[in-house]
Structures are given as structure tokens and as C-alpha cells.
Amino acid sequence: MYATNTRDSGIHVVTRDGKIVFTESVKEFLKDKKIDSLKELGDGSVAVECSRSIFILKPQMLSMRKNVYDTIKRLKKNLRSDPTDLELYSKLAKRYMENDPISEEPYQLYLSGLEAAAKSSNFYQARRFYEKARQIKPTCSEPCQLFLSYVKITPYKQLMRRIHLDLFALTKVANDLPNDLKSRRCKTRLLIGEGDFSFTSSLIDKHEVTHPNLRKAIIATDLKATHLQKLSKDQDKKKKVLEKRIVDLKQCGVNVLFGVDAKEIHQTFKGRRFKRIQWNCPFGESTSTARKEFTDTIPKFFQSCSRLQLPNDRVHITLMQKSDEYWKERQIENRIVHGSATAGYRLIRKRSFGTPDKKRYPNYTHVKTNTTKPYNAGGEENEFIFEKTDTVLPVDSYRKSCKLMDSHKKIYAIKSNNATRKPPLEECYFECSTDEDSSDYYESDSGEEL
């Protein structure tokens, strides 16, 4: 109940963002009668006592949201009956967030879901609940501590390391890192099309404390040394910065190579194995003719990767996807569905790599292909991570490519703008959620599956 110089005194229901969703003025409702008391009832109504009478006010907002409350009540009842039904935790959390975006309930539900999933050994779903809880409270260590208590008694050492790193990022306490991590070897990593090598440098800087041996495991390459060749005399300062960056990378243990063609890496590195191969933004803004000529590059790149990798090794590809529906076109242009599936790779992660407001690697500069100009198209860069399987498709098969998916690692759909039931893979794109975890650069333990 309140009064202002713009609204009559009376009974008003106001949301947290200041919107009045119900109002009844004294003049219209109670005339000149004096209000003696107000009392909230159990169903959200308000009892108004005045002049020896009681009026019950039931705001319209409750009747409008009755379905939401009924759904929440039903889901809670179902969850009490079967706490192992993991879908109920997500459904209930979604309903709470729709009803009250700042409610504490979704966070607690995700923690409860994490425990239920871990107890049933469903660590894929447990990881999803863990990520969602951390999204709600990114500065809270409770999800890390809870998840660690379950993971530490499993064989999933890679997942345990990931949680330790998340915890360290929050606390900055050295004791939160296991003693063996700093001396641990890192997976061999081949970086393609590095351009100005700002990603290589940023990657090493970001993981300096947690992965000091990462630099020794990296081979960073470029095809044409475009930046060294095209920086003009009036850009001499930038050229010196780039030259110094390359020298510094070499001195700290990175192997820097030029003349490496992404389609022929199996020839350049014949006989070697790379557990991780990464290509960021393989083709920037250019002409339609150039984009058309590029369409076979990603499929050939995957085929070449497959000759340097064993099952469970990974390929990372980052795409600038702009906004609206362009992300679909971008995937089709680069043929990542066709390229990955026909080489026997399945999608296991999709991460946000950077937006105009937030970058995973702040010192990394994405530039247009064959230029030194920054790519300023806006939108979001997404990192797609693929895992090599022991399956190779004999033909371009939509049905068989869908069967490559491992639902314990990533759930996704392969779709197309083509209305046919089995569209050609060249016209397909991945549709899936975005993961919040980040890479583990340490060498794997034997027998580790997750």
C-alpha cells in the first residue's frame, strides 16, 4: 500500500522491475473507509480489514500464472516420487526461472540434479548440471566442491582435473591444484592458419600457471606468412611486434612453421600423431567466388587430420557466425557436418569462443583471410570440437552420420534447410546447446574414457 503524487493511495502489486500488475485505488474500492490492517494469505491473496469488514483481494497476476504454479507443483510431486528422473530437475528449474528469474530454486535444483546424476554414474548429465549451476553463480565454489566429492572416486581423472582448474580459477589458491599438474606433460597440439600468431601467444599466456609445459607441446603454423609479407613500411611498428612475438614463441619452446597447407598436413607431418588439431576461423570475410572455391577445404582438412590421429583424438574448428540465422549458412559454407562425418568424426562440444563484449582469449585478433585487417563483422565465434571415431562412412550418408553421435558426450541434431528427409550432408548444419566447460591440455591417463 502506498501513495505518490501520480497515483492514488490504494492496494498495488508491483513486480521487481517496477511494473504495476494489479491496482485498486481507495477511492474506487473502499471509498472513504479507513484500512485497519493488511494480511497476506497462503494463496497469495491479501485480506483487507476496514470498518468491521474484511475484503479479499486476489491479484489478476495469480490467475494468469496459475498454470505455471500448477506445473511447478506437479513437477515437484513427480520429483519427490522419482528423484532419479534427471529430466525433471531441468524442467522444474526452467519453470522457476520463467516465474522468477532471480529465484534461488534453479541453482539448488541443478546442484540436486548433479548429485542425482553422479550417484547414477551419469557423469555427462552431471557435468551439464554442474555447468548450469556455475552459470547462475559463477563466483561460487560450491558446485566445484560438490562435483569433486563424487568425481574423485571415479576413473575420470580428466574430468577431475577440469574441476580442479575451475576451482583454482575462482580461489587462486595453489593448494586447489593437485601437486602433479604443474609438471604434467601436455597433449601434442597442431595449430593451423595462425596468421599473426596472437592466438598461440594468448593460449600460452592464459594457461601459464596451470599448464606451464603447454608451450612445448605446440606446433604453430601458417600457410603464407601473410602478416610478415603484407605489413607495409608505415606499419613497421606492427611488423616488429609480430617478429618479436614469433621469436619469443620459438624461444619458449613453440615450434613455428610456415608453408603448411591445412589440406596436406598428413604429408607435412607424415608418421606423427597430434592428439589435438585446431584451426580458428579458417576463412574470413571475402568474395562469393572465393567462398565457393573454399567449400572443399574443410572436408579435405578433416581427411588429412584423420591420417594423423587415432580414435578419441580431437579436431577444433572455430567459426565466426555473426547473428540471426547466419550461423546455419556459415556451417554449410564451411561444410563442417559433411567434412567431419565423412572422415569419421563426431561432435562432442560447442563452446562460445568470443563475442564483441567477451573473448575467451582477449589478446587474440581474428583477421580477414589473406589480409592483416581485423574481422569486425560482430556476432559470435563458436568453437566446434570433434572426436575421431573408428567409423568411416563409405558414402555420404545422412542416416549413418547421425549415428556417430554419442549421447553421453554431446546431444545434437543434424539439420538442413532442404525439405527432403535425407538431405545431402553438404547442405547440413549442427543444432545444439553451447557448453560452458573448457579444454583439458594435459596428457591423458591410460584407459581414460571421459
UniProtKB/TrEMBL annotation:
One of its GO terms (biological process) is rRNA base methylation. Pfam families: BMT5-like. InterPro entries: BMT5-like. Residues 190-367 form the 25S rRNA (uridine-N(3))-methyltransferase BMT5-like domain. GO terms for molecular function: rRNA (uridine-N3-)-methyltransferase activity. This is 25S rRNA (uridine-N(3))-methyltransferase BMT5-like domain-containing protein. It comes from Rotaria magnacalcarata.
